[in-house]
Design goal:
alpha+beta; eight-stranded mixed sheet; 8 helices; globular
Length: 299
């Protein structure tokens, strides 16, 4: 059994059964000296989004592949069995083929997916990696925004461990059923950054939502209603409600949907097109992660 993980995703994306031994293949003619010169046959077994933290809880001896190990890592039979059980118990992820034709409807056997935009479409730039949806009520929302702190209950500590500075964060008001964003994580999740946050006791030593991160506004957008059909499509594989971790694709799709509502997505597209033409364009008055903006040198 082989398990697959995408670099920096902090998730295991699936597993496959090996059907042949590794064979050396001469790839110099087509890949100009690729370091991946061996091929094996596999039969795909399961597609999932299993968080590395969950995988380590199931298989504590699991070692992740690195560049030093040439992007692969052996594991014991016991570790493999434990990891396979965790993969099997994680929700299935459906893969959908994109459909970019505007002249006709997609064939019945192809599902158009908002998370698979045509190549000529530009998504809102987000930091590669998982995002997260935090929750609040109408009573705590002002405190969240005023303090610049979002919190989760203690039992979500493991789920929040994938949050990294720069991650795309969203805030779901469970009272009004509205999703707000776009926020950027400034810190990893930590215990009681503000022990008195969200508590009515001025002498509290721990918050009722102790798993906390600091955030700043990346882009202020009109909120999305929970009944928005596109939002529902993006999150259709989620279990357990709106609050929780997002895959990179889900975070990028929600950010793009929010940005399109206030015209920022179109502004960003025109800004990038100007850069590519070599024009001296004025930077947009919004926070854009710089690593996603690629431009040609100006002459």
């Amino acid at each position: 059994m082989i398990f697959f993980t995408v670099s920096d995703s902090r998730h295991i994306q699936g597993a496959a059964i090996v059907t042949s031994i590794a064979k050396a293949v001469d790839t110099t003619a087509i890949t100009r000296g690729s370091q991946f010169d061996y091929r094996i046959g596999v039969e795909w077994y399961r597609t999932c989004e299993l968080a590395i933290t969950t995988a380590l809880e199931a298989a504590p001896d699991l070692l992740l592949p690195t560049r030093t190990t040439q992007f692969c890592q052996d594991m014991s039979a016991q570790t493999g069995e434990s990891l396979m059980k965790a993969v099997w118990n994680s929700p299935l992820v459906s893969l959908y083929e994109s459909w970019s034709s505007e002249a006709e409807d997609p064939p019945i056997d192809i599902l158009a997916d908002f998370r698979c935009p045509p190549n000529n479409e530009i998504a809102w730039p987000t930091m590669p990696g998982p995002g997260f949806i935090f929750g609040c009520t109408s009573e705590t929302m002002d405190e969240c925004l005023g303090r610049g702190i979002l919190g989760l209950p203690q039992n979500m500590k493991s789920a929040a461990s994938s949050i990294r500075p720069g991650a795309s964060i969203f805030l779901f008001n469970v009272t009004d059923r509205l999703l707000f964003g776009i926020f950027e994580a400034l810190t990893p999740a930590a215990m009681n950054l503000e022990p008195r946050a969200f508590s009515k006791n001025p002498n509290a030593t721990t918050s009722p939502f102790p798993i906390q991160i600091r955030v700043r506004v990346s882009l202020e957008c009109p909120p999305l209603e929970d009944t928005d059909p596109v939002l529902g499509d993006i999150l259709r594989n989620r279990r357990g409600g709106r609050i929780g971790a997002l895959t990179n694709a889900q975070a990028e799709a929600i950010a793009s949907l929010l940005a399109s509502q206030c015209g920022a997505l179109q502004y960003m597209i025109e800004y990038q097109e100007g850069l590519l033409r070599g024009e001296h364009v004025k930077d947009p008055p919004i926070a854009l992660p710089p690593k996603k903006i690629e431009s040609k040198p100006r002459e």
